[in-house]
Amino acid sequence: MGYLRYKGAVPLFLECLKEEHHYVRANAARALGDMRVKAASASLIDLLKSEKNGGVIEQTSLALIHLQAHEADPVLKLVANHESMQTRGWVLQAIGNLGSRADVPFLAKRLKASEMLERATAAQGIENLANVDFEFPKIGGTYSLGGIYNPEAAIKRARDWWEKNKAAFRSD
After folding, report:
1. What is the pLDDT of residues 24-73, one digit of tens each?
2. Confidence of residue 167 (pLDDT cuts 50, 70, 90)
3. At 136, is the pLDDT very low, low, confident or very high (cuts 50, 70, 90)?
4. Which of 59, 71, 122, 166 is deepest in the core (most CB within 10 A)?
5. DSSP 3-state helix, strand, coil percentages of the chain (rounded to 5)?
6. What is the distance between the alpha carbons of residues 160 and 155, in angstroms, rounded to a whole number?
7. pTM for the whole thing?
8. 156: which residues sit within 8 A by CB, 6+ positions away?
9. Does 171 score more than 80 pLDDT?
10. How far apart are CA 155 and CA 152, in angstroms?
11. In terms of Cα–Cα distance, which of 123, 109, 108 is closest to 153?
């Protein structure tokens, strides 16, 4: 029903966010985001406040991006330390899309993370929020890490930029 964007199913999807099975919650969140049901933002944010399953957090963060739910930013930060690197990446991507310039220091702390994906996602978020370019490859304005590519040079540019500019963010 979500794939078909059947609007009559929106009440069902909202109810499914409370289901016991994590696949049901994840798919309901994804459907609401894909359908751009802006009224679902508050329910999705509430789901994040207690959700532990990485797949549900990932699909919810993507839905919030689709809904441009900037009000989700504080709750996204609360789940940004999830044990799954993949989940952390999705959440950091959401923060980089929905956050503000004030979130740059939060993302900058991740530029030295042990996982390359976490460092790269944080740097891409900083690019977006601070309106800078660390020269990550892009196709049509969207990040593309397909093919053979090592993002470490762009991550280093992000770290260098942060060292030169972090004082400006202390007063924000």
Report:
1. 999 999 999 999 999 999 999 999 999 999 999 999 999 999 999 999 99
2. very high
3. confident
4. 122
5. 70, 0, 30
6. 9
7. 0.90
8. none
9. no
10. 5
11. 123
Residue with tokens 């950091």: 92
Amino acid at position 127, single letter = E
CA distance 1 to 128: 33
Q: Where are the alpha helices (DSSP H) in 67-150?
A: 73-78, 85-98, 104-108, 116-130
Residue located via tokens 């929905």: 98
Calpha distance 160→32 (Å, rounded): 39
111/119 Cα distance (integer angstroms): 5
Output the CA–CA distances (angstroms, integers) from residue 132 to 68, 101, 119, 136, 144, in the order listed.
21, 11, 16, 11, 17
Tokens of 139: 């196709």
Domains detected in the chain: 1-99 (1.25.10.10), 102-172 (no CATH)
Nearest to 60 by CA among 102, 101, 18, 100: 18
| Placement of tokens 């789901």 in the chain | 47
Token pair belonging to 169? 């963010």
Q: How many CB atoms lie within 10 A of CB 117?
A: 15
